[in-house]
Amino acid sequence: MDWTEVSVMTSSEAVEAVSNILMTRGATGVSIEDAKDFDKLKAGRYGDHGEIVDPADLVHITQGAVVSAYYPNSQDIQSQVTEIAAQVRQLKSYGLNPGPAEVNVNAVKDENWRTAWEKYYHPVSITRMLTVVPSWEDYQPKNKAEQLIRLDPGMAFGTGTHPTTQLSLQALETVMRGGESVIDVGTGSGVLSIAAKLMGAFDVQAFDVDEVAVQSAQKNFELNPIAKDVQVAANDLLSGIHEQVDIVIANILAEIIVPLVPQAFENLKPGGYFLTSGIIKAKYELVKKALVNGGFGVVESLKMKDWYAVIAQKPKEDN
């Protein structure tokens, strides 16, 4: 089968939002070329035949990012290109820089689609103990404390390299002690659910409004034996969910976090934590105000570049 590639020229900060737009329009997979990812790479086996190559010698973009989505040729994507471009430009209203927001369409052979992202995606240390590893890499932990999250980035967005995901993982490390129950809202690739299990969570539930993301997360859970018991389902935020857990985590846009606040409060035990990320600088005060007005106490704010994550806590019963 041949494919149609739809590539969006955007900014590094808008990568996950653009990926979301493309996936919700039926993309079978996405690949991301982000100029900032090359800043993290060290010499490694990046050559076509496994030879060691200096990242500086690789041909790559030097600024911004390109998010490419892949659609079967049987799917009429041409009619959606205008709408995709409009949605990308609208990201500005959410406080995100959409960059050039240019959309290009190209025909791609099946074998090229299957390997499109492999030359750009390599193991990345996200926190002191967590390293995200693509499913095809034969990577071994460097020490006993290092935990691996294996992902297939061709299935969905959320590979762990974006600041919003890194902040979410750092927030999890801050509050988790082991044995917790966790709900992951807007799970995407499932990276946060897998991390929670690696950190000792007893029970993890994952939800996403996008059925494609749900299927992707399930496949990634199967790549990580510790996460095989994670329960994943399609759902609109926490609508219809009524059970109290220790931690609710959501790496989503600020405007979506705000209506989630009362749902998270209802579904948390007294003293439970609500971890939010995906908050651009311009929306930080909006989210913080919504959390406080919703009954939460703000414990800590984490920052990386122009992105924020917030650790909030539901009051304990004796407070």
From TrEMBL:
Transmembrane segments: none annotated. It comes from the Bacteria. GO terms for molecular function: methyltransferase activity. GO terms for cellular component: ribosome. It catalyses: L-lysyl-[protein] + 3 S-adenosyl-L-methionine = N(6),N(6),N(6)-trimethyl-L-lysyl-[protein] + 3 S-adenosyl-L-homocysteine + 3 H(+). It is an enzyme of class 2 (transferase). Its EC number is 2.1.1.-. S-adenosyl-L-methionine binds at T165, G186, D208, N251. Keywords: Cytoplasm, Methyltransferase, Ribonucleoprotein, Ribosomal protein, S-adenosyl-L-methionine, Transferase. The keyword S-adenosyl-L-methionine applies. Signal peptide: none annotated. It is found in: Cytoplasm. One of its GO terms (biological process) is methylation. Belongs to the methyltransferase superfamily. PrmA family. Methylates ribosomal protein L11. This is Ribosomal protein L11 methyltransferase.
